[in-house]
Amino acid sequence: EVQLVESGGGLVQAGGSLRLSCAASGFTLDDYAIGWFRQAPGKEPEGVSCISSSDGSTSYADSVKGSVKGRFTISSDNAKNTVYLQMNSLKPEDTAVYYCAAQPRCPSTLYHFRGQGTQVTVSS
């Protein structure tokens, strides 16, 4: 059974950092690109970033690129079958449920399946 499990969310003050993890099971990171998405309260989901571990390429969604550039970094550890999203200098507007998803390619708006998500709350 394929599965993605996120962890690392929590409550942090503005300016703080969090590192989200997305642990994959039932497949390897070479099989799919992995993307991070977020959904803030009352808003539509939006893509944040993705990584293709097979060639190491990464991408940051245009819709959030201006707001996360220089603050968020996506990476992967194939040995641990895990993708990370390092988030620094967090802002209240980063508050959202963050979830990872297996995608056909990076970048893409599509995904095959996703995890349950982890809540990130940034207080001002």
Instruction: Report the order of strands and helices.
Output: EEEEEEHEEEEE
Largest sheet: number of strands, sense, barrel closure: 7 strands, mixed
Summed up, the helix count is 1
Helix content: under 10%
| Low-confidence residue ranges | none
Beta-strand portion reads: over 45%
Shape: globular
Count of DSSP strands: 11
Rg computed from alpha carbons, rounded to a whole number of angstroms:
13 Å
How far apart lie the N and C ends? 40 Å
Calculate the mean pLDDT score and round it: 94
The structure class reads mainly beta
Which characteristics define this entry?
11 strands, seven-stranded mixed sheet, four-stranded antiparallel sheet, 124 residues, mainly beta
Summarize the structure in words.
This protein has 124 residues and is mainly β. The chain is built from 1 helix and 11 strands; from the N terminus they run E-E-E-E-E-E-H-E-E-E-E-E. Strands 2, 4, 5, 6, 9, 10 and 11 form a 7-stranded mixed sheet that branches. A 4-stranded antiparallel sheet has the order 1-3-8-7, with no helix packed on it. A hairpin with a 4-residue loop joins strand 5 and strand 6 (57-60). The chain is globular. The termini are far apart. The mean pLDDT is 94.
Write the layout of secondary structure elements.
Layout: E1 3-7, E2 10-13, E3 18-25, E4 33-39, E5 46-52, E6 57-60, H1 62-68, E7 72-77, E8 82-87, E9 96-103, E10 113-114, E11 118-123
Parallel strand pairs: 2-11
Antiparallel strand pairs: 1-3, 3-8, 4-5, 4-9, 5-6, 7-8, 9-10, 9-11
Question: In summary, what is this structure?
Answer:
With 124 residues, this protein is mainly beta.
